[in-house]
Write a structure and sequence with these properties.
heterodimer, A: 208 residues, alpha/beta, Rossmann fold, 6-stranded parallel sheet, two-stranded antiparallel sheet, 8 strands, 48% helix, globular, B: alpha/beta, 2 domains, 3-stranded parallel sheet, 9 strands
Chain lengths: 208, 315
């Protein structure tokens, strides 16, 4: 079945067991908020300013040890996160921040409420990426949570253009895709090991 | 020997870097290889998750006979206590407030803002296994503490959550009062109100000849151009935090006498669904001691007392 990017976003959050989402809506994030409407397992908190929002997610993450999750719109929504992203990243707090973005065909065209979010946050985050293809969405969200909490934790920013939110695509969940890829890698490794074994059997061990 | 776990040895930690722990052997545990020997060259780096590293070390630990050393440390503590007599008339001092918090709360998450409130909290708060402190230690973001307390409460509904902030930082994200009210978060917001951006004011007092440039929060257009003497005649503080809290639908309590500290905290602790703002009116020119002037080594700290005519050391 094909679902929208926004629906996959919600599905992925549920699989990451996100129970609280700190979120402030806006024009370029409206599809995501539409997908969140009525979802019971994710409690959406509406702070009154994006800076308050990201600090709240930071407080949640520091006090629970879990990943704090933010969702804001493009432009001013994203720039209002900047202080909070730097605050959290400096203290190694795991956050995943989703920012709305203008549709991919408008990026770089001085579109309304457009800023180069990834460019702005690059030096104050652990990882930042704009989703360019709908089929990459699931894997990028999976990676975002993994990167945020692994090693020295930090902030990951995922920039979501509006057309990616709207576009229909595979409903395969991020975890499913992840598991499939891992399985594929394992299979490839097995196959390569077999080849190696056959090769060694045929040619003998190399002399030391 | 210096045992350091997950630290970054930045300028706030080391003071003058060439003078820092010159004769010590430094062991540094950090998960991030890039943090090793970045600011201070360490003798023994351990790249590991701190939890695993400490666990592994504890397995090999041996008990030392260091009673003399402990006694020595305790005697130093008595000789140079952090808890210093204050020049407050009312007795509503940061120390008194935080000591009361230590006594009244067991399961507690406390957040600080940035500035004097943060320094006092880190000095006087007693952290136990059931208490946690959240603070913007790296970036030093004013306006952090109050919203962070909301997040902490949402993640830990059964814990008491206190935000300690100054009157400056509180106004940086005060709009979140609405969030705390609508989501029914019974957090306790302690505002230490001295009517100044106190940390900068303290620097101005110590290093800039008391030239209080743009740090007085009571200052109005009608005030004299030059003013470094707060008095009873100063204009009223704006906003009125109590009425502001009430306008949001929260509880507001103003504390001006030392005997009111405990009842205010107890009342706030009993709240179930609503945040409580407690505004503590503290001495206007209260200082944080000790202080290491910027660029100095840790050995050159000011202990207080010398404050009124401290001269900036120039290398």
């Amino acid at each position: 079945m094909k679902i929208s990017g926004a629906d996959l976003f919600v599905k992925a959050l549920m699989e990451e067991k996100v129970d609280i989402l700190f979120a402030y809506p806006g024009g370029q994030a409206i599809e995501l908020f539409n997908a969140l409407y009525g979802v019971e397992s994710i409690k959406v908190i509406l702070p009154r300013h994006e800076q308050g929002l990201v600090h709240a997610a930071d407080g949640y993450a520091r006090s629970t040890g879990r990943v704090g999750v933010c969702l804001v719109t493009s432009g001013p929504g994203a720039t209002n996160l900047v202080t909070g992203i730097a605050t959290a990243n400096y203290d190694s707090v795991p956050l995943v921040c989703f920012t709305g973005q203008v549709p991919t065909h408008l990026i770089g065209n001085d579109a309304f409420q457009e800023v180069d979010t990834v460019g702005i946050v690059r030096s104050i985050s652990k990882y930042a990426i704009t989703v360019r293809n709908r089929e990459d969405l699931g894997m990028i969200i999976k990676k975002a949570f993994y990167i945020a909490k692994s090693g020295k934790p930090g902030v990951v920013v995922v920039d979501l253009p509006k057309d990616i939110q709207q576009k229909l695509g595979s409903d395969l969940s991020a975890t499913w895709v992840f598991m499939e890829v891992m399985r594929l890698i394992m299979q490839l490794t097995n196959v390569m090991c077999c080849f190696l074994l056959v090769y060694v059997l045929m040619t003998g061990l190399p002399e030391r | 020997m210096l045992f350091s776990i997950g630290v970054r040895f930045n300028d706030r930690i080391t003071g003058k870097i060439s003078e820092f722990a010159k004769h010590a052997t430094i062991i540094h545990i950090d998960i991030d290889p890039a943090s090793i020997s970045r600011n201070i060259v360490v003798d023994i780096p351990i790249i590991a998750d701190a939890r695993n590293a400490i666990g592994a070390l504890l397995d090999k630990s041996i008990s030392l006979d260091i009673e003399d050393w402990k006694e020595q440390i305790n005697s130093w503590k008595q000789l140079h206590p952090l808890d210093r007599p204050q020049n407050s008339v009312s007795g509503v001092t940061p120390q008194a407030i935080i000591h009361e918090i230590n006594a009244l709360f067991d399961n507690l998450i406390i957040t600080t803002d940035v500035g004097q409130n943060q320094l006092w909290t880190t000095q006087f708060l007693e952290i136990t296994e059931t208490k946690q402190m959240l603070t913007s230690g790296g970036l030093g973001t004013m306006g952090y503490g109050f919203p962070a307390a909301m997040g902490a409460k949402l993640g830990n509904p059964k814990m008491d959550v206190i935000s300690i902030c100054g009157d400056g930082g509180m106004q940086m994200n005060i709009q979140e009062m609405a969030t705390a009210v609508v989501h029914e978060l019974p957090i306790i917001i302690c505002i230490l109100n001295n009517g100044y951006l106190g940390n900068v004011r303290q620097w101005q007092e110590m290093f800039f000849d008391k030239r209080y440039s743009t740090t007085c929060m009571k200052r109005r257009e009608s005030c004299p151009v030059i003013c470094n003497t707060p008095s009873e005649d100063c204009p009223a503080y704006t906003p009125d935090f109590i009425r502001l809290a009430e306008s949001y639908g929260a509880k507001g309590i103003r504390v001006q006498r030392v005997e009111d500290i405990k009842p205010a905290l107890l009342e706030a602790k009993a709240a179930i669904k609503s945040p409580t703002v407690i505004e503590f009116i503290i001495e206007r020119e209260e200082n944080v001691w000790p202080i290491v002037p910027p660029g100095n080594s840790l050995a050159e700290m000011f202990m207080g007392g010398e404050n009124r005519n401290a001269e900036q050391k120039v290398d």
